[in-house]
């Protein structure tokens, strides 16, 4: 049997911000292949392009040159947990966890059930109707993790991840 098809491949990937003499080469060139089931951790100094790579993988930035492809079979192939959590202050904890499901147009009853399941798994069930301002930093991280996992992504992108509970 051959090698499994990679979940993520990058070839000659670069990202530059700005133009001319003020241009900043933020990433690359980079070649990378991530196999199914593989856990990859990018380590490097601040400003070396780790977050830029994740944002390209999540579809939030376009590469300057090269390609990055995600090979999955699902509608929601990847979910990202941002360094600053990326949760919405004006939404309850439950609404934050349900957000990706709402974007996918998962029926409300199913979305509420999946959100409740992940809130329970993360030890946040008692805070479903609270707002993020009432939570500790660690609890906000768990809300971000629950939101990412609720959509059942094939690829989980984590920018400076917390330890998983």
UniProtKB/TrEMBL annotation:
Record has Isomerase as a keyword: no
Pfam families: ABC_tran
Entries under SMART domains matching the protein: AAA (SM00382)
Signal peptide annotation: none
InterPro entries per UniProt: AAA+_ATPase, ABC_transporter-like_ATP-bd, ABC_transporter-like_CS, ABC_transporter_ATP-bind, P-loop_NTPase
Domain ABC transporter: 8-164
Keywords: ATP-binding, Nucleotide-binding, Transport
One example GO MF annotation: ATP hydrolysis activity
The name this protein goes by in its record: ABC-type nitrate/sulfonate/bicarbonate transport system ATPase subunit
Lineage, top ranks: Bacteria, Bacillati, Actinomycetota, Actinomycetes, Kitasatosporales
